[in-house]
Amino acid sequence: MTLRLKLFLLMAGVTVFSTMGVTAVALWRELQRGQELLYREGATLAGSVAAGASRFVGPEGARPEAREALEPMLRRLVAAAPLARAWVVDRSGRLVACAGTPGHDACPPGMPGEFAPAESPVQALLRLMQPEGIVASAPVLRDGELTGAVRVDFNHEEVVGSARRLAWSSAAVAGLWILIGQAFSALLFAGIARSITRVVRASEQLADGERGLQLPVPGDRELADLVVAFNRLSARLKERRVENERLIGELEARVQQKTREVLRADRLATLGGIAAGFAHELGNSLNVIRGYAGVALRELPEGHPNRPDLEAVKRETQRAASLLERFLVFARSRDVRAQHQSIEPVVREAVEVVGPAAAQAGVETQVQVDAGLPEVNADGEMLRQAFLNLCVNAIQAMQPGGGRLEVRLRRDGDAVAVEFRDTGPGIDPEAQRHVFEPFFTTKAAGTGLGLAIVRQAAETHGGTVEVESRPGAGALFRVRLPGAGGKA
Prior knowledge:
Beta-Lactamase; 57% helix; Heat Shock Protein 90; 3 domains; alpha+beta; single chain
């Protein structure tokens, strides 16, 4: 079913129902008014016979000659008024006399004998469709005592004739208005359908790829809002397509760049593996050289001219071996053996290990642990090495002259923050940007792998490491580790 047909049926329904409502109200009021008048008229007609009927109907019932005396009176009453029948009952409801017009049974079985008619709004409405008249009555009184009743029944045509004529005239007027309304609706819906059809065709053109399509705005407010919204949508789609094309071009360029970077990273990973193998083999060779140098030193007497040379060889091979060992620790990604545990014992052990070196350098150490710290899912050995590197770096930064190293464990949301604060010379902003990069160092004898190992350990556990420092104001290194089941 098309929208035009739906709107047409909707307007027709509104017109029909509104017209039927007006007609029904007018018919109902006319029907009630006419029946009230008939009730009053019927009561008056029945009262004209009730005075004479009181002579023949008493408290004990009807007299024997009542039927012969009352039926002529009832026939005259029926002939003089638009009645179908009239009858008299005593106060027990027994029929005394009755009379009817030709075509109507004067005394049909089941005639109502009660004094007051049973009436309801539904019954009044049903008289429009069923051949039922209005029954009115008047009491028969003798010496002020109720002895019976005279009842009259109006013709059905008299009851509904005026209402039926009103219904036919209302139906004719309603039909005329329905025709006028449908003609007006057809013209109105034709204009609406043209505007909607124009929008539909323009939408199909947009779907086919046409850009920047704009429609003329009609005069109707609602349709104008629809067309304005379509024009705005068309303009936005054009802008989005241009933007998408630009983004696609940038994305393709980035994909090409990332592809080159991945290939380069793959080559670097291959070279890293080869370098780790070389470092391992070189470490073995350096250990052999260091061993033979040690043997030679033990065999040379004190004061031998070659002894300083051998000591230099042993010292440099030791330094090179230490550098290679730290490189292998950084390069090899061993499996993490994590378990739920408190981080406090790991931190305290790292601080205790550097205790002698701190005392020799004149550095005071202090560990502060806040209450209510969550447990972490961590590899204790890997974190111990990272914390040890931070402590060693802090002690070395405060040489000579000593200082203070404060280690604090505190809760940071669902994570645990381990902070290492020293009173050393601090780190300049340029060095802070590279301090966690491998082989970057500001020390004359440094390897540049200590802080890189710290970052590797923190990231392996899903955490982070950061530095806060100002030249001359010390440094603060903060390692954040997620609590067991949380995120850092």
